C-alpha cells in the first residue's frame, strides 16, 4: 500500500506502513515515521550539516541489514547531497555522494526507507559542501561483560572531571545499546583522536581495574573500554535521538547528569521511542550545547 503525503511542501510516498519492523515489540514502520517526525525538532539540529550514514533494515531488526553512505541515484532531487572524498574506501571509490538531513522531509524520507539508525561524524560541511574542522569530541564507553552501563556511568563521571579540568563541558547520552557516550564541544586545540586517546590512557593509568583504552577483547572483561577512535574523521557515531536496531525500539538518549550519578541498575537507562518523546516533552533537548 502506498500513501502519498506532503511534508513541509515536499511530496513523498510512504509504503508498507503496517509492516512490523520490531517484531518482539510490535513496532511498525508507521510508528517509526511518527517517532522521527515528532522528535525532529530536537534531532535535526544534531544532524544538520553532517554527512549521513544509515543502517537500513528493510525486513525489520531480525532480518538482514546494510549500511548506506552513498545516496542512491533514485534519491529525491530535493534531498541535499554533498560529494566528499573517501580515501581508503573498501569499495574503491574516490568519493561518495552523502545525504545531509537538514529538514523534516528528508528525515521522513529516510524513515520510510527503514533507515532505523542514523550515524554522523563529528564534523559538518559548509553551504558549498566542503568539510569543516571537527566541532565535537566524543568518547564511546563500551562495557565488557559482566560490566554494564552502570560501570560506564562511573567512568563517565571520572571523564567528566578530566574534561572539566581541560575546560570542556561533557554531555552524556546512552548508546541505545549497552553503553553510553560523552560529547563535548571541540575547539580544535589539537588533533581530536590523539587528544581523546591521551585522556583515555590517563584514566586507564589511574583506574586500571575499571578502564581500558585498547580495543583488544581479552583486555576488556569487567572493564569499560573508552573508545577514543570515534574522533577519526572517517568514523561516525549514532546520533542523539536515533533509534537502535535492538529487540525493542530503544533510542540513543540524552541524559541528565543526575541520572548518571544515581544509576544503580542497567534498566534505569533504557529508553524506548515513546519514553524519549515523553522526556522531550518534559525537558526539551537535553543534548543542547553546553
What layout of secondary structure does this protein have?
Layout: E1 2-7, E2 10-15, E3 20-22, E4 27-28, H1 29-47, E5 53-56, E6 66-68, E7 81-85, E8 95-99, H2 104-112, E9 115-120, E10 136-143, H3 149-165, E11 170-174, E12 180-185, H4 192-206, E13 211-212, E14 224-227, E15 237-238, H5 257-262, H6 273-283
Parallel strand pairs: 13-14
Antiparallel strand pairs: 1-2, 3-4, 5-6, 5-9, 7-8, 9-15, 10-12, 10-14, 11-12
Helix pairs in contact: 1-2, 1-6
Q: Quick one: biggest sheet?
A: 5 strands, mixed
- The CATH topology of the largest domain comes to Alpha-Beta Plaits
How does the overall form come out from the CA principal axes? globular
Radius of gyration: 19 Å
Number of helices: 6
Structurally, how many domains make up the residues?
2
Structural class: alpha+beta
Order of helices and strands: EEEEHEEEEHEEHEEHEEEHH
Mean pLDDT: 95
How many β-strands, per DSSP?
15
CATH architecture call of the largest domain: 2-Layer Sandwich
> What distance lies between the first and last C-alpha atoms, to the nearest angstrom?
44 Å
Strand residues, percent: 15-25%
Low-confidence stretches: none
